[in-house]
User: What shape does this take?
Amino acid sequence: MKRAVSTGFLLLLCLLPLSALADSGSSDSPPSGQDQNVIDEVAKALSVQSIVLGGSYDQGTFKMFNGNTKAQLTDNGRTVPILDYVSPEHIVADMPMKYGDAVLGLNFTGSFGQQNTSFQNVPGSSAIIGQNIGSRVSGDYLAGAPFIYLRLGPIYPGTDSYWLFGYGLGVALWHFSGNPIFYTPNGNNYVATSMPVSSTAQLFLYQTWRWQFHFGHWDVRFEGRMLNNRKIDGFNTSFENYGIGIAYTIHF
Assistant: This one.
């Protein structure tokens, strides 16, 4: 799934409007007063804190493994809320283009997320779509990460619009509990063992990738998140989530 999302991310990058990618060298004239005002408005909006609220359709996958013994559950896709905090933008580098700027920016992004994986991925069946066989693991997490990104805009002259592509690396405080089924190879078959698992709120490595189109206060987002790099009860444990959503930004 991660490879498919990465491929889609690259294809979307190739679809950037030519006006946004046009180099400033193609025209010797500076941006018009109106365009400059829009550029200033974009920078002004991003110079303050914001709360992002919305919803997305995601698919999350929970995994635990120790050697050949593995458990994997998914939610088969569901609607989840978007709740993010975004700090003011820090501009690392700024390159003028024909329309707007290409900005390398940095902020701190905090996110709240929920997990509700109740469909078991059974060996020999689909690795994406799980089966309802009574197993379930649910939980939630609070994550935070410095987020570095490339912002291109305005995409359309005279509008508050831009593309944003970014990556964040930080930590997440995650807790969960449930009863996954673990499968261990035994010759040509598998031994299935249902075992309760739980974790109090503990720190996990957190990574996030996001492609975003912004227009006014609205955003369309393709996003991936991953929590991993910790063992629970001797099992390497992770949760990854990919989805597309729409969100509204409130600046303050």
